[in-house]
Design brief:
By secondary structure, the protein is mainly alpha-helical. Helices cover 76% and strands 0% of the residues.
Length: 163
């Protein structure tokens, strides 16, 4: 059986995202702080979120990479990337809440609330850690992670389709 189109695109997306992040890390000027963000830059980063439609590319990774390519400082790029996700994540959560209320009534809300609160806490801790990390380190570790992720996807694709 041949590898699925989705899996094929996913590891190519992981490799492509890794290459773009490496390019951004290497060529990015890192001169703009969050206070220097223009409306145009905000719109461009909003559009960069669309790259996450490519399997294997994350929303935060695509916006972080675009911001670095535009000359933003690492911490400013990461902070704006996470702030940019708030509307989309909030709307997705509200859609889930509506679905839970429609399908299960109030009984379906408690698990959703517990999940949202635990996700919010773990996300906040991860963001705090990442911002501190980026103050002292480059994004090369994430480039290597994405390359490794691509390798794992290729292996799983080949191994899973060899039977």
């Amino acid at each position: 059986m041949a590898p699925s189109v989705e899996c094929y695109c996913r590891y190519h997306g992981a490799y492509g995202a890794s290459a773009l992040l490496a390019l951004a890390e290497r060529l990015g000027q890192r001169r703009y702080s969050l206070a220097q963000v223009t409306v145009t830059a905000g719109w461009l980063l909003g559009l960069a979120q669309m790259l996450a439609l490519v399997p294997g590319v994350s929303r935060s990774g695509s916006t972080l990479t675009a911001a670095l390519l535009m000359g933003w400082q690492r911490v400013a790029a990461a902070r704006f990337s996470f702030l940019l996700g708030i509307p989309a994540i909030t709307m997705a959560g509200l859609a889930e809440l509506k679905e839970a209320l429609t399908s299960s009534g109030l009984g379906g809300v408690l698990p959703l609330v517990v999940g949202v609160l635990s996700a919010a806490l773990s996300s906040w801790l991860a963001i705090v850690w990442l911002l501190r990390f980026l103050q002292r380190h480059s994004t090369w570790v994430f480039v290597l992670y994405r390359l490794g992720f691509g390798v794992v996807l290729v292996v799983v694709s080949v191994w899973g389709n060899s039977e």
